[in-house]
Specification:
Helices cover 39% and strands 21% of the residues. The protein is of the alpha+beta class.
C-alpha cells in the first residue's frame, strides 16, 4: 500500500477521520457521534477530554487497526473559534466554550467595543466583535469564574488541543488566531499583546504557525495510546470551515467556497481586503493570504422547517417546487427565521413572507425559501465584492449540493457557475490534503478532488430574479422595526 496521510475533524455533533493516499484517493473513513452540552440557554460547550480527545483516540485507533497502516503525517481541524482554558500543563479547567452559537459574553462584546473602540477593533483585527470572538469569552471567564481563572495559563481550540495531546506543543494557526478578536493584529500577523494583556492578564499566548506547518511530532505516550508511530509529523491544522474550503481546492485569491448545510457559509480567499463591519476578515490557510467570510443563520434549516410543518417529504416538496416557475409567482421570503449573521448582524431579524395569494401552494413557498437563501448569498457576495473584488471561481460543498434545484437557483440568482468536486467528505479531507503536502507524498501531476460537474446560470432568468432581489433588499429595512418589536414579544 502507498503511503497514506490522516485527516481528522472535530465537529459540533460528530467527529470524522479519513486516510488518503498521495493521489487524493480516500482509502478509509471513520466517524464518531458526540453530544454538545447546553447547561444554560445560550451556552454551548464541549468537554475536551470526553469529546475531543476521546474521539481522536477512537478514530485514529480504528483507522490504524482496520488498515494496518501508520500514516506518514496527520492534520487535525475542528469547530471554532473556541475557548478552552487550561493550566500551564494543558489540564482543562472547564469545558470549552464554543464558537458563535454560545452567546454568554454579549455584555463583554458591548463593553470591549466601547472601551477599545469599535472602529479600532475593526481596523486592527478585521472583524467586528460578535459572539464569534474569543476575546469577550476570555473576559467573561475571568469575571465569572475567578477561581478557575486564577489557575489559567493557556487556552486552546479543538485543533490546537489535539496537537498538544499528540505532541506536547502549544501552538495555534494564524487563521484561528485571527478569530480571537480583539487580541490578534491582522496586518502584523501576530498577537495584539497590549489588548491581550488588558483582557486576559497572565495568559500565555500560543506560538503562531500556518495551518500547513508541522507543529511537532507524535510523542511516545501519544503513540502508545493511538497506534500512531512515534515521531509522526503533526500539522498545526485550523478551523473546520477553512479546512473544508481546502478540501475543494479553495486556497488561492479569487477562490470561494459556498457551503450548503443547515446554515449557509461563504469563504473567499483574497490577497488584500478593506475590513468591512458586515463581514469577518481573517487570515487564510496559506501564508500571507486573507479570507472574507460570511454566514447566514439559516438555509437548509428552512427546508426542514417546511417539511415538518407540512408533513411532506423532501421529494414531494422538491417535485412541487420544480413545477413552480422561477420567482415563485411573485412570493418573496426573508430567511431570517433565526435572526441573521452576515451581512446584517441582527439577532432580532425575523422571517417574513410577502406576496401570498390564495392561488399559491406548497411548491411556491418551498421554492421561495430556496430563492430566499440564494438572495442571501447574493447579498453577502455583493458586500464581499465591494471589499475585495468578485470571486473568480466558486466551489459548492455540503449536503445541500445533492439537490440540483437549489444549486441551480443560486447560480441563476448570483450569475455565477458553481463547481462540484468528486469528494464532499468535508474538513477531514482538507486536513489530509495539507498533511500530504507536508509529508511530500502528493503524486506528481495528481489532481486532488477533481471537478466532476459545473452548474451554470441560466441567463434567461436573470431579469426576473433581479427584480425580485430588489424587493428582497427593500423588505428588511421596511420591516426591521416591526420585526424587532415582535422579537421582544417572543422572548422566553
Amino acid at each position: 500500500m502507498n503511503e497514506l496521510v490522516l485527516g481528522l475533524d472535530i465537529g459540533t455533533s460528530s467527529s470524522k477521520a479519513c486516510l488518503v493516499d498521495g493521489g487524493g484517493r480516500i482509502v478509509e473513513v471513520a466517524e464518531r457521534p458526540h453530544t454538545t452540552s447546553m447547561p444554560r440557554p445560550g451556552w454551548f460547550e464541549h468537554d475536551a477530554e470526553s469529546v475531543w480527545w476521546a474521539d481522536a483516540r477512537a478514530l485514529i485507533g480504528d483507522l490504524v487497526q482496520r488498515t494496518g497502516t501508520r500514516p506518514a503525517a496527520i492534520c487535525v481541524s475542528g469547530i471554532g473559534p473556541c475557548m478552552l482554558p487550561t493550566t500551564a500543563d494543558g489540564e482543562p479547567l472547564r469545558p470549552a466554550i464554543l464558537y458563535g452559537i454560545d452567546t454568554r459574553a454579549e455584555a463583554e462584546v458591548v463593553e470591549l467595543g466601547q472601551t477599545l473602540g469599535a472602529d479600532r477593533i475593526l481596523a486592527r483585527g478585521g472583524s467586528p466583535l460578535t459572539s464569534q470572538a474569543v476575546g469577550p469569552k476570555l473576559l467573561w471567564f475571568r469575571r465569572h469564574e475567578p477561581e478557575r481563572w486564577a489557575r489559567t495559563r493557556r487556552f486552546f481550540m479543538a485543533s490546537s488541543y489535539l496537537v498538544h495531546r499528540l505532541t506536547g506543543e502549544y501552538v495555534l494557526d494564524h487563521h484561528s488566531a485571527s478569530q480571537c478578536d480583539p487580541i490578534y493584529d491582522l496586518a502584523a500577523q501576530d498577537w495584539a499583546a497590549d489588548w491581550a494583556t488588558e483582557i486576559a492578564p497572565g495568559l500565555e499566548l500560543p506560538r503562531l504557525l500556518w495551518p500547513g506547518d508541522v507543529a511537532g511530532r507524535v510523542s511516545a505516550d501519544a503513540a502508545g495510546i493511538t497506534g500512531l508511530a512515534e515521531g509522526t509529523p503533526v500539522l498545526a491544522g485550523t478551523i473546520d470551515a477553512w479546512a473544508e474550503a481546502a478540501s475543494v481546492g479553495v486556497s488561492e485569491p479569487g477562490d470561494l467556497m459556498l457551503m450548503y448545510g443547515t446554515t449557509m457559509f461563504l469563504v473567499q480567499v483574497v490577497d488584500r481586503a478593506q475590513p468591512d463591519p458586515h463581514l469577518w476578515t481573517t487570515r487564510g490557510i496559506m501564508p500571507g493570504t486573507l479570507t472574507l467570510a460570511g454566514g447566514m443563520a439559516t438555509s437548509g434549516a428552512l427546508t426542514a422547517w417546511m417539511r415538518d410543518l407540512t408533513g411532506s417529504s423532501y421529494e414531494q416538496l422538491l417535485t412541487e417546487a420544480e413545477g413552480t416557475p422561477p420567482g415563485s409567482d411573485g412570493v418573496v421570503v426573508l430567511p431570517y427565521f433565526a435572526g441573521e449573521r452576515t451581512p446584517l448582524f441582527d439577532v432580532n431579524a425575523r422571517g417574513a413572507v410577502l406576496g401570498l395569494t390564495l392561488r399559491h401552494g406548497r411548491g411556491h413557498l418551498y421554492r421561495a425559501l430556496l430563492e430566499a437563501t440564494a438572495f442571501g448569498v447574493r447579498h453577502n457576495l455583493e458586500v464581499m465584492t465591494a471589499s475585495a473584488g468578485a470571486p473568480t471561481r466558486v466551489a459548492a460543498v455540503g449536503g445541500g449540493t445533492r439537490g440540483g434545484l437549489w444549486l441551480q437557483i443560486v447560480s441563476d440568482v448570483t450569475g455565477l457557475p458553481q463547481e462540484l468536486r468528486q469528494y464532499t467528505l468535508g474538513a477531514s479531507y482538507g486536513d489530509a490534503w495539507l498533511a500530504a503536502g507536508a509529508a511530500g507524498i502528493t503524486e506528481t501531476g495528481a489532481s486532488w478532488n477533481p471537478v466532476v460537474a459545473v452548474v451554470s446560470p441560466d441567463a434567461d432568468r436573470a431579469e426576473r430574479y433581479d427584480a425580485l432581489y430588489g424587493v428582497y433588499r427593500e423588505l428588511y429595512p421596511a420591516t426591521r422595526g416591526l420585526a424587532h418589536r415582535l422579537a421582544a414579544l417572543q422572548e422566553p
